[in-house]
Design a protein that fits this description.
With 339 residues, the protein is an alpha/beta fold. It is built from 12 helices and 15 strands. The structure holds zinc ion (ZN) (2 copies).
């Protein structure tokens, strides 16, 4: 089968690899769509030698058709449509059993990280990490929801975003743009914050009432020119320190900020700003797998344009170019197809 491998720093090759066999408890999935995420780029830019030596297949946003079922698997059959949850959790700890497997600490190597991922014609995945894709959603939409869509949706659920809220979204990459669309569909008003003009224009075309360029001046006063009391809720999807520093100026007193964007720098903001204004802060990592059906139902009922975040649809043979485009952050999301 054809599959991608990292062969060095910022180098990807399309290779022939042996077809995998589903082991006990696993499904064999023929991929139809696999999308590139920001976390793939961390590996692309600085791949660990062991990852290169083992020729691990990258990709953790995969969606396809079940073509084989391993020993002991029940409830899945060839022909079913599946989306893979990349974090392989235990389903036995208190967090998993209480429906919060996104924070399970008893994890096995995740797909596209320590285990072979979805940038391949075929992959095996634990049946317990596989989710059903409804007929009303395309494989491409499944790949978008697999990681980034759910990552955008879960913090909005926790924020209780609704029609009375003014929601600011900082960082208008795919997660931020999806969060903006979901918040609007939940009835909120949305203002987007991003230095890239094309991303701001896209957010406005999707329904944001206004956008702010954080490089043009202080974000707080710019936001308060639109919403004098500040944002009721903030989805921080950039992971950038200046966005963290702006939180007390962006969020209204007693408002809440959800931290979604990843970064390597220590979190930094004004402690006195957070305490003086009773601001709430929480972190959010992907989404609980138990939220999948609700997420699929929501995006269908609200006719969310998930494809708006995709800038390039490529074949897997164009893998090196896809990663290069994603690395340059030249456009939106890159999605590989296998037909
Ligand atoms: Zn991802
Ligand atoms: Zn667990």
């Amino acid at each position: 089968m054809r599959a991608l491998s990292l062969t060095g720093e910022r180098t990807i090759a399309v290779q022939d690899k042996p077809e995998p066999e589903p082991g006990p408890g696993e499904l064999l999935i023929r991929l139809r769509a696999s999308a590139i995420c920001g976390s793939d780029l961390h590996l692309y830019r600085r791949a660990p030698q062991a990852y290169i030596d083992r020729a691990v297949t990258p990709g953790h946003e995969g969606s396809g058709d079940v073509v084989g079922v391993g020993e002991g698997v029940t409830g899945w059959a060839p022909g079913d449509r599946a989306v893979v949850y990349f974090r392989r959790t235990c389903w036995e700890c208190d967090d998993c059993r209480s429906g919060n497997n996104q924070v399970c600490a008893v994890i096995r190597p995740g797909y596209g990280f320590g285990a072979h991922g979805s940038d391949a014609e075929l992959m095996t995945a634990d049946a317990s990490a596989s989710m059903r894709l409804p007929d009303g959603l395309s494989a491409r939409e499944g790949a978008i929801l697999a990681c980034q869509g759910g990552t955008a949706y879960a913090p909005l659920v926790r924020l209780g975003a609704g029609g009375r809220d003014r929601v600011a979204v900082s960082g208008l990459g795919p997660v931020g743009l999806l969060a903006a669309q979901f918040a609007l569909a939940m009835g909120a008003e949305v203002v987007g914050i991003d230095p890239v003009a094309e991303r701001r224009a896209l957010a406005e075309s999707l329904g944001a009432s206004a956008t702010i360029d954080p490089t043009a001046g202080d974000v707080g006063p710019a936001l308060k020119a639109i919403w004098p009391h500040g944002a009721d809720k903030l989805v921080e999807a950039s992971g950038a320190t200046p966005a963290h520093e702006a939180i007390p100026a962006v969020v209204r007193p007693r408002g809440t900020a959800a931290l979604v964007g990843l970064g390597t720098e220590p979190f930094q903001t004004s402690l006195n700003g957070i305490t003086r204004w009773d601001i709430n802060l929480f972190g959010s990592t992907i989404y609980p797998q138990t939220m999948w059906d609700e997420l699929c139902d929501f995006v269908q009922r609200k006719s969310i344009d998930l494809g708006a975040v995709v800038s390039h649809d490529l074949s897997i043979e164009e893998g090196p170019r896809g990663f290069q485009l994603a690395d340059e952050a030249a456009g939106g999301k890159i999605c590989f197809h296998f037909d």
